[in-house]
């Protein structure tokens, strides 16, 4: 999207506001499918948790995508967006057996990563096929909080516990229709990914009724000009060859599945904020904006980098600013950044704001969550209204407290 288009959206819809470019989402989806075009059966399941607006889900449905869900609410969102149950896989962690059973009743694919839950589910529902999430004990990912395939991770069933899985399958007579792994996010070295895939192939040989193998995702996107990213094209070429060879050995053409979130939507997103004040201290120039980590928590939570540009003054002299929010705690978006000169009232644009940004927003400090806009067919479409005070108090229930004076009168 062009800067003048973003600036007009900020003027028309107010700030702060999230803006998503549908064309970029479609480009990323096609790029991924093209990378694995030599695979006979490929399924991309968009990770709903990255950005769960129902209009975004409908866009993915129109592209032919499936969805990966981690809560019963995301399953329900997917169904409301028009996905059929067979296009939805449910991959929760630490949820109750009741929630898994609720998802199974809806007819979606079930993915289980706990031996206890696997045995309980298989005992009660032996005719319902399930996928198993394996922990390959491979350390991958750009941050400890998003590395989920290592030996100390809470995710997945250890590869060393395969005999336990096989015993449960034999005892319950349940069917395992898929094998899944997810090692982490922001994976740079595709050799690490390929190494983990070999572990998954070896595991898959233990199960004779598979329909698909799910390799998760975790592909890194560039966060700034010249930044490195996962080489999807090279990964597609190498992993496709390995997968096709495995299918020939297995004696059946399986479906190769992925569950990308960030790769598909991160670069499509722009977060627009207005500068409330410029504050000069003895050592720092702060640009204080009309937002905070209540709207965009990733820099404070993960230490993630979001490029920040001044779309109100794109040709201004560059100066150094620390961009901060209005939350009454430290909420730094960017420290000592080189940005075109900022004046009060200017609109700043935070790049890579499509994934895990609005979906992690909150009402902290009793602030309203922002609006969301989809840029589609060269037109801005409002896809979520900005919250109001009524939204803040809607589910709150007031208790009537009698004053001390009233209590004395009662006596």
TrEMBL record:
Keywords: Amino-acid biosynthesis, Decarboxylase, Lyase, Lysine biosynthesis, Pyridoxal phosphate. Substrate binds at residues 298, 302, 329, 356. Pathway: Amino-acid biosynthesis; L-lysine biosynthesis via DAP pathway; L-lysine from DL-2,6-diaminopimelate: step 1/1. InterPro entries: Ala_racemase/Decarboxylase_C, DAP_deCOOHase_LysA, De-COase2_C, De-COase2_N, Orn/DAP/Arg_de-COase, PLP-binding_barrel. Its EC number is 4.1.1.20. Pyridoxal 5'-phosphate binds at residues 218, 356. GO terms for molecular function: diaminopimelate decarboxylase activity. Residues 18-354 form the Orn/DAP/Arg decarboxylase 2 C-terminal domain. Its cofactor is pyridoxal 5'-phosphate. Residues 24-266 form the Orn/DAP/Arg decarboxylase 2 N-terminal domain. It catalyses: meso-2,6-diaminopimelate + H(+) = L-lysine + CO2. CDD domains: PLPDE_III_DapDC. The modification N6-(pyridoxal phosphate)lysine is found at residue 49. It is an enzyme of class 4 (lyase). Belongs to the Orn/Lys/Arg decarboxylase class-II family. LysA subfamily. Homodimer. Specifically catalyzes the decarboxylation of meso-diaminopimelate (meso-DAP) to L-lysine. This is Diaminopimelate decarboxylase. The gene is lysA.
